[in-house]
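queue> pop job 88
queue> type: inverse folding (structure -> sequence)
queue> payload:
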């Protein structure tokens, strides 16, 4: 297999969905009759490649096509002020990408905001979903146990307002259970991503001012989801609390939950090997 790099897999598409028209960046990796779309989280400087670089190759080697969609407002995709549900906006963009790529049905793996967006997609276009993997996300809404906004979300919003290296390090140290694996190279790459698109940072702050609840609570509609769903959470998640995972399995009829101990909001990164094996097993059975 030729090495997968961000540059060699980088693509753009013009998305048209109703009145929505956007230039969207994605990475297209591998070939296969089944496709897994990976949707990243909402932190400043996030992208499909930044969130999932430890998870692409095992799926490609197993014969899946993997598409990393950069949501509007992140990375090389167009910027946007989102006044309504960002989960539904991202879902519409995914639908808008699937049509020109001739993808009838995809599995969706979503991290945090990406999980919220995967659920929004499954509610709007159920016939176009294979299986769902929801990690550290799937629905907004209040936690009965943890004060909200959580510590992590407060740091994330602070970083959007003041994008400094100190604020970035404070946020990233809370992403993971064990920050000793976070390198200066990783901080610098994330800082570069963030500062390359100040329009994204400004638009996120404007969106929050217009609508502080960017991710609606889908709890009352979860029973509509027929797709088989694997929910994965870190017990030590300080961004989206673990009880959200319990709400998801309580609501989605055909679902199961795996909780990693000693794991923060980035299970796909902190426990990459086991995470990859679980996802492959779930998508292949
Ligand atoms: O506010 C929410 O419910 C979602 C928060 C979210 O998406 C945070 C994600 C952070 C990352 O995974 C990232 O930026 O890499």
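queue> result:
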């Amino acid at each position: 297999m030729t090495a997968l790099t961000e540059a060699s897999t980088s693509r753009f598409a013009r998305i048209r969905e109703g009145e929505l028209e956007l230039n969207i960046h994605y990475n297209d990796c591998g070939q296969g009759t089944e496709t897994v779309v990976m949707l990243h989280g909402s932190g400043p400087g996030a992208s499909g490649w930044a969130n999932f670089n430890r998870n692409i190759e095992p799926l490609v080697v197993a014969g899946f096509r993997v598409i990393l969609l950069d949501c509007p407002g992140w990375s090389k995709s167009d910027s946007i002020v989102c006044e309504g549900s960002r989960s539904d906006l991202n879902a519409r963009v995914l639908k808008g990408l699937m049509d020109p790529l001739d993808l009838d049905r995809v599995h969706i793996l979503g991290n945090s905001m990406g999980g919220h967006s995967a659920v929004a997609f499954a509610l709007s276009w159920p016939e176009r979903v294979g299986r769902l993997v929801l990690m550290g996300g799937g629905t907004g809404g209040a936690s009965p146990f943890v004060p909200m906004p959580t510590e992590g979300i407060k740091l994330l919003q602070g970083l959007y307002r003041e994008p400094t290296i100190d604020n970035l390090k404070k946020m990233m140290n809370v992403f993971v259970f064990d920050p000793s694996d976070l390198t200066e190279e990783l901080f610098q790459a994330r800082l570069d991503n963030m500062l390359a698109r100040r329009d994204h940072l400004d638009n996120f702050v404007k969106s929050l001012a217009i609508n502080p609840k960017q991710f609606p609570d889908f709890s009352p509609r979860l029973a509509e989801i027929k797709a088989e769903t694997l929910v994965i959470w870190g017990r030590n998640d300080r961004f989206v609390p673990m009880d959200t995972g319990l709400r998801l399995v309580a609501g989605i009829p055909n679902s199961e939950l795996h909780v990693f101990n000693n794991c923060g909001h980035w299970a796909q990164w902190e426990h990459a090997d086991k995470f990859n094996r679980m996802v492959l097993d779930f998508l292949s059975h």
